[in-house]
Design brief:
mainly alpha; two-stranded antiparallel ribbon
């Protein structure tokens, strides 16, 4: 009985273990995919490839798999800090082997020198260049991500990368002569007409943790100055909140531009895949047509031979016609006549010879 029970329990345990492993795998995939999406949302979406990957999403997948977060020069320190907060890591300095941080640039084509070769159009990952073969090209400035991928293919070197606009610089706020450290008295929260927590906002603004500041409704601050007026430490809270709100607006604009660039990049990739599939289909059709053209003479000869053989077979199996029957009967009659004549001639020969002997 124990052996029988073991034979029954072991398959059941194996099925349960397989089901648990399958569920764990699905849960791991479900947890990994949103993480990749969140990482991808923090990347600048320039699709430049400086990180060593063919786009921002492949780099996001690599980061989720354990790659370092400091391989993105266009994102720079700001992106590294955001990724570190998301993944619970310590911020790292930008890896110089992948490039150095620089202000965002835009491609500019010197149109008088453009020869219309379309190589820059083919290299642009977000389809931000307009033009056609042997005609002037132009860059859509609002769509250009500054990836620099169009410069190298240009045979006449007529593309320049120009700084789009100076990067915002947020200088540390100088401390007021009478400013002291926050004593957490809570007076600022009591007088805030928007029911905010200026003390917490002050702490997150100093730490440059803008995500937490935004979650505490920093953008709802009306900058009335009541919190700074009652602050016994004389902290210029309004000025601090203004700087943090400006940074949040800049981040919001960058996020919108990045999302638009990502959509254009995905559309570009889908279009290239469709074109590749269409070219492959055309190639297969041309190959099949060439094969049919090569096979056509042999097929024609085979068809003629087949018709000849079919006609011969038809003639061999067809019943004789009346004319054939008549011709065959005449042939038999003529053959019989010829045979009788030959027999008569052979019997007449001895009689003639006897007469000659008598003479």
């Amino acid at each position: 009985m124990e052996i029988l029970a073991a034979f029954v329990l072991l398959p059941a345990l194996a099925l349960c273990a397989g089901a648990l492993l399958n569920r764990a795998e699905h849960r791991l995939v479900a947890q990994t995919e949103p993480l990749i999406e969140r990482i991808d949302a923090l990347l600048p979406q320039t699709q430049c490839g400086q990180c060593g990957h063919p786009g921002c999403r492949p780099y996001a997948q690599a980061i989720a798999a354990g790659e370092a977060i400091n391989h993105c020069p266009p994102g720079g320190e700001q992106t590294i800090r955001a990724l570190a907060r998301l993944l619970g890591q310590e911020p790292l300095p930008l890896d110089p082997s992948h490039g150095k941080e620089a202000p965002r640039k835009l491609a500019y084509i010197r149109e008088a020198e453009c020869i219309g070769c379309t190589k820059c159009i083919q290299a642009c990952p977000v389809d931000a260049i307009l033009g056609s073969a042997k005609h002037m090209h132009s860059v859509i400035a609002s769509e250009c991500t500054g990836c620099d991928l169009c410069v190298a293919p240009c045979p006449v070197d007529c593309i320049d990368m120009l700084v789009a606009k100076p990067a915002p610089v947020y200088e540390p706020r100088p401390a007021a002569p009478t400013e002291q450290a926050c004593i957490r008295c809570g007076l600022c929260a009591e007088v805030c007409p928007a029911a905010l927590l200026p003390q917490q906002l002050h702490r997150y603004a100093l730490a440059q943790d803008l995500a937490q500041a935004q979650s505490l409704r920093l953008m709802d601050c009306i900058e009335c100055g009541a919190c700074a007026y009652v602050c016994p430490s004389h902290i210029p809270l309004v000025r601090q909140f203004q700087i943090a709100k400006t940074q949040l607006r800049d981040l919001h604009e960058q996020a919108i531009s990045a999302a638009q660039a990502r959509r254009r990049f995905e559309f570009h990739q889908a279009r290239k895949a469709q074109e590749k599939a269409q070219e492959e289909q055309w190639r297969q059709e041309r190959t099949a047509l060439a094969a049919r053209e090569r096979q056509a003479p042999a097929d024609a000869i085979a068809a003629v031979l087949a018709r000849v053989n079919a006609k011969k077979a038809e003639q061999a199996t067809a019943p004789p016609s009346p004319q054939d029957v008549i011709q065959a009967a005449l042939a038999r009659v003529n053959a019989k006549k010829a045979a009788r004549q030959a027999a008569q001639a052979s019997t007449a020969m001895p009689a003639s010879e006897s007469k000659n002997d008598e003479l």
